[in-house]
Design brief:
Keywords: Signal. Pfam families: Cupin_2. This is Cupin type-2 domain-containing protein. It comes from Ralstonia holmesii. The protein is an alpha+beta fold. Helix content is 17%, strand content 50%. The strands form two sheets. A five-stranded antiparallel β-sheet has the order 1-2-9-4-7, with no helix packed on it. A five-stranded antiparallel β-sheet has the order 6-5-8-3-10, with helices on one face. The longest helix has 22 residues. The radius of gyration is 15 Å and the shape is globular.
């Protein structure tokens, strides 16, 4: 890897980790990175993250620099996408979240809930930006 590309990659990772860590500090929300890989599409990458929600845990409104597909692995999660009515997904259900759309998620079931989040995003941008 060329020095400039390496520097850019390291800076992008540092920025993504800072935003990622801020999001992970939401009480009862635990993120585990599974896959992080560049794509053949220039300046894009994909990530897969397991997100575990304690009972009644809430992931506050945030956006991503690309698309997300959320697949519920366990439990019941309510998603709120900006400008749309809430959507409640059960184990085995999936939801497409367009790039830049503010959204939040809450465990509305009893017990823990988990999702597999797959992102296709622009390289070098923070994965998560909180919306105030």
């Amino acid at each position: 890897m060329q020095p400039n590309r390496l520097t850019a990659t390291l800076l992008a990772l540092a920025g993504a980790l800072c935003a990622h860590n801020a999001f992970a500090q939401a009480a009862g929300v635990h993120r585990t990175d599974l896959v992080h890989h560049d794509l053949s599409v220039p300046d894009h990458e994909t990530l897969q993250v397991r997100v575990d929600f304690d009972e009644r845990a809430f992931a506050p409104a945030h956006i991503h620099p690309g698309e997300e597909i959320a697949h519920v692995l366990q439990g019941t999660i309510e998603y709120r996408l900006d400008g749309q009515p809430p959507v409640t997904l059960q184990t085995g259900d999936s939801l497409f979240i367009p790039a830049g759309v503010a959204h939040s998620a809450r465990n509305v079931g009893s017990g823990k809930a988990s999702e597999l989040a797959t992102y296709v995003v622009k390289s070098g941008e923070p994965l998560v930006k909180l919306v105030h």
